[in-house]
Amino acid sequence: MDALLTSCLEHSLNSPSVDATVFVASSGVPLQTSVSAGVAAMGDWHGGAIEEAAKMLQEGAAVKDKSLQETANGILTTWKNAGKRLPGYGHPTHTDDPRTKRLLEIADETKVSGLHVDLALEISALTDEVYGKHLVLNVDGCIAAIISDMGFDWRFGKGFFIVSRTPGLVAHAYEQMYFEKPYKSPHWSEIEYTGRAERKVPEP
Question: By C-alpha distance, which of 184, 166, 119, 185 is closest to 146?
């Protein structure tokens, strides 16, 4: 549990939740207000992959009349045909997510690994064949597999991310409040009006 929560604790300034926290903290509100803004910024595209991946793995593992390979292949085919991004797989930076590697080692050492971890790894192994490229099991997918083997319902997935990331948000809020200039806002040069052109108001 300690390893799972530590793995998502911090991600520098490169996330919507941190951006929201720092932006709100710069307006002079209490610490809890800015942190709650960051938590509120966690959604399907930021922090939601654990929950979605856990649902996918738990539903796949519930199928009893197919082999692990058949189940993994069916999952991949379904997501590819739907034109959706496979939750918990792929990473813009890591070709081999180091967080995943360490979490899997700890899961093995503590004898937590089970069917869901096996299925998650089988899916990754078959991505080359189905997608034409390798999609690494990232930290979100790894957490999803491990918490599934620990017996957690997939609906807890986003909760794991919230609990994990919140201490990091506290640190960012503190830094903004006491070490940075107040009132963050975009520069005028970054603002562009895209509405309708100016028009005259008709005479009465």
Answer: 119
Higher pLDDT, 152 or 13: 152
Among the listed residues 89, 78, 161, the one whose alpha carbon sits nearest the alpha carbon of residue 123: 89
Write down the pLDDT at residue 202. 87
Angle CA(136)–CA(141)–CA(143) in degrees, nearest 5? Answer: 130
pTM of the model: 0.89
Q: Are 13 and 19 in contact (CB under 8 A)?
A: yes
CA angle 24/27/28 to nearest 5° reads 110
Give the number of residues written for the chain: 204
From residue 85, give the alpha-carbon distance in Å to each of 49, 91, 191, 198.
10, 12, 31, 41
Residue 158, pLDDT > 90, answer: yes
Map out the domains of the chain with their CATH numbers.
2-184 (1.10.230.10)
Token code pair at residue 82: 């739907």
